[in-house]
Amino acid sequence: MSTTIRPAAVPRRRRRISRWATPFAFLAPVLLLFLSFKAYPVLYALYLSFTTNEAGQQLFVGFDNYIRLASDPLFRIALGNTVLILVVQVPIMLVTAVFLAVAFNSRLLRGRTVFRVAYFIPIVMGLVAYGILFSALLKYDDGLVNFALSSIGLPKVPWLADPFWAKMAIVLALSWHYVGNNAVIYLAQLQAIPTELYEAAAVDGASRWQQFRNVTLPGLRPALVLTIVLSTIGTLQLFDEPYVLTNGGPNNATLTIGMYLYQNAFQYFDFGYASAIGYALTLIVALVSVIQMLILRRRAS
Amino acid sequence: MTAQLTTPRRASARRTSQHRRREATRSGFLTVFVALGALVMIVPFLWLIVATTYPTSEIFTVPPHVWFGDYFWQNLTTLFQSRGFGDALRNSLVVATVTTVIAVFICSAAGYAFAKFTFPGRNVIFVVIIASLALPSQVTLVPLFQMMVELGWLNTYPSLILPNLAVPFGIFLMRQSMSSVPDELIQAARVDGAGEFRTFLQIVLPTVRPALAACSIFLFLGQWNDFVYPLVVLRTQDAYTVPVALASLQGVSSTDYGALLTGTLVSITPVLILFLFLQRHFVAGLLAGSVKQ
Amino acid sequence: MTYPHTARSRARRIGAVVAGAAVFAGALTACSPESSDDGPVTITVWTWDQPGQGLEAAIPAFEDAHPDITVKVENVGNPAIWDKITTGMAAGGSGLADIMNIGVDYMGNYIETFPDGFANLSEMGADDLESDFPATLWGSAQDTSGNVYGIPYEVNTNVVFYREDLFEEAGIDMDSIATWDQLLDAGVTLKEKTGSYLFAMDKAASESDSANLWQILARLQGTFFFNKDGDIALSDTGSVAALDFLKRANDAGIVADIPGGWDNLMTQVKGEANVALLASASWMAGVFPDNAPDLAGKWAVRRPPAMVEGGYTAASAGGTFLSIAESSAHKDAAWEFVKFSMATLEGQELVYEGAGLFPSYSPMWSTDAFTAPNDYFDGELVNQLFVEALSEDTPPDYYTSDYAKALKAYTDAQTQVLLSGADPQEALDAAADLLAQQTGRDIAS
Predict the structure, then answer these.
(1) Which chain C residues contact residue B162 at CB under 8 A?
(2) Domain count of chain B?
(3) CA dist A221 to A68, A193, B173, Å?
(4) A197 at B interface, C-beta within 8 A
């Protein structure tokens, strides 16, 4: 993205128009579809966030929903839980994914194809299967996980019944679900790193670790930016895991913003308030993303 | 990882036997480590496979089954005969394939525009598109549904396909990978007299093939597993997609878990096949890199 | 393709793209079924698995009598159906099915939040049917001015299922137990003698059904989340007594911690969960023979004990309705089908045969097929037991539009009490305060 190119030489008179025409031609389908199917719903939700349902009528109430949000104890709990899961889960998952991708890309790993598929399987599991599977696995008395723990002499863990362990269960389930996803993106990026760079580093006598730090990591940068931003957004919106595993409990220990938003919209039918939560979330995501971009950019320079 | 892409023969000529032993040890460690992780990843999947071979009343037992039952064909028959699952599979395949093919193409084009051109509003447009990703779909569901009602598109393929073509994630992914395409390559194509579109199609796209493969998987998967939106816009059972059909198997007091889990297994299979197929393109990208010199 | 060089050709090209998209969309639209208004009428019903089977069974007879009407039943699945209906409601009532199967817990909220969503059935003559249905359920589908928006389909009453063999082994005579406190004492004996827990609870509330037992105990004292004026009753005497009972039982060590959800319920039914009593609802009676055939004659069923001596021994356990969309183009045809399937003996017998759900239509209760003894429960007249309980004069449940919020506030309080030993009164006071702040409702004094 650092450099840009001018289009091929064209007569000077037309240069200005054509310089813009080319990128816009490439952009046109996306722009058109985006304006048709995204802009209206997004703006409508913004309008909804300033309204409330009064006996079937959407009444304009100004910033009431946002004011209510600022003093809503459940929203604060949800925000705290979400940020905690974000700070713990995303780094664990992404670091694991980087090493996995490097391993998949390594000549030293045997049976690569089989392993790649194994790590990819969790991503393809839909919500319904995921819910049934994990509640079966995490049962206290006869779940597979506790069975495994006790067979190696460890105590059973109340995975879904204890506030702390419920959070851990979400972190683990989330990592299980998406680590392969990120590894695939890294793998695609790793293969774009020219081999000459590794060979040059080897000739210079760089150790494996030095090669990793000086060749692999910088080469992965675009993918790292991508996954950090997307994982952050995904985790801030986190809904599936608490929905199928804990229903936000016990006692709100796993209530996330996404979960709270869903409850307000589809259980309380309060779409105005849910939209306000959605926009508050968007604001948080924007802030976090800007901060991340600034940090990542500074690191790079 | 040293000189990881050199051929074994060249490598062995350079290496001492001691070196080779150390490599073997490392290789063993790495393989065992990754294998342990892989085991953790697939245990739930194995449970699923075993579960599909039992009737509903015998799936959740204490202790859990460790071996297959003999009920798989009955579950499969129930699923396809009495539940019309065949329709759902066909709908999902058509919708996900059409969406993926078009979306990958237009997202690449947009990614290319963002990565390699300057034009007024470039950053603003990009930020707006990415920011739209941050708004949870639960709050845009109702207005989008309303649009489909007014367009008269309920229960149709376009209602599922068109809103899912301009995917912010795909645009982001393609922009990132386009930015690592060397500028010289594009300039060279232009000097050779290739038009802008041909340059994109014949020079740029092939160099980002691994990213295209990755992008395709994620777009296909996103559409394949999408649940709430298809649930609300589809009105008749013959138009259901796989996740909607699976959800329709759930009742309050009488869920047929045998059919439900079998349906889940069947629904995973096409995506796994797609992954197996496309991951060869990741590898192809790898080989292309080593041949170049 | 070369890129356009002038603004005009650019505009033309964009136009072509739009047209192309439209053609593409049109081509695909043409492939899918379209409804038409002229000629015979097709009406659609949204429901889920089991009630769907009941309605399917009534279709042939209905279509014979109404050759111009075709009925299509779409099984949407539960809970998926609620997201689907709610979206249509929020979109101004558009895109809904003609007839929808609605749970009593959602009914009040739909009526209050989307008053134009359902057709007013009183205007179509529903009021004449009132005397044929249980009053508690009928009232739950009425708005504040008494207009009816749903005809009751399935009805349930709370009952307890218990393992007669285990009770006998511990030397407990169930007939001598009149109150829940006596049951608690018996539970302690039972635990000592047989090692079996008395009942199970989802202490961490991982599923939305974890408050069911408390709801039974509160109803047995004539209270619920809200009272008749719509005030919050969550922290009144009866509510606190109910949670206090659960705490005492939990402290006595006779409550197994088993998460909610269907499969966990089944482990209890099958006798795999070491639990001797299951406080549940009448619909469960049909679940036992299919899932625990080996335990025939060992499970017994009876009405719940009272919370205080001489108090209520019956409590409603909700039910479902059929409602008609206000936006439906075929409201009259839809109403014909609702009337036939829900409010005639001919239709109801077919529906009952198809699904086995307990009918709300009270004339059904005295038919022959219905009064037969139940082989699984030792020849007991199970349906008679349910009818007696349903006929008892218990106060209606006031769900209101804030039922879901109240359920959540209560469930959190229950978790605090059962997992961290919080005081029931304090926990429920805090829950009531939170609920009052969220909903603007008063707390009943």
Answers:
(1) 21, 25
(2) 2
(3) 41, 11, 12
(4) no
Q: Hey, how many other C-beta atoms are within 10 angstroms of the C-beta on A276? A: 29
ipTM over 0.85: no
Q: Which residues contact C56 (CB under 8 A, 6 or more apart)?
A: C73, C354
CATH number for the region A69-300 comes to 1.10.3720.10
Q: Find chains touching chain B: ≥3 CB pairs under 8 Å.
A: A, C
Judge if C360 and C343 occupy the same domain: yes
Instruction: Calculate the CA dihedral of residues A225, A226, A227, A231 and round it to 10 degrees.
Output: 100
Give the range of the structural domain holding residue B27, as residue numbers without chain letter: 1-42
CATH assignment at residue B204: 1.10.3720.10
pLDDT band at C85; cut points 50, 70, 90: very high
B38 contacts in chain A (CB < 8 Å): 114-115, 118-119
* Residue among C353, C264, C312, C296 at smallest CA distance from C161: C296
User: Percent of chain C scored above 90 by pLDDT?
Assistant: 59
Partner-chain contact C14 A18, CB within 8 Å = no
CB pairs under 8 A between B and C: 117
pTM for this structure?
0.84
Most confident of A132-146, B11-25, C158-172: C158-172
Beta-carbon separation of A208 and B2 below 8 A: yes
| Cβ pair C206:A251 closer than 8 A | no
Please state the domain extents for chain A.
Answer: 69-300
Using CA atoms, how far apart are residues B273 and C157, in angstroms rounded to an integer?
Answer: 50
Q: Residue C232 CA to chain centroid, in angstroms? A: 21
What CA–CA distance (Å, rounded) separates C244 from C332? Answer: 50
Same domain, B31 and B99: no
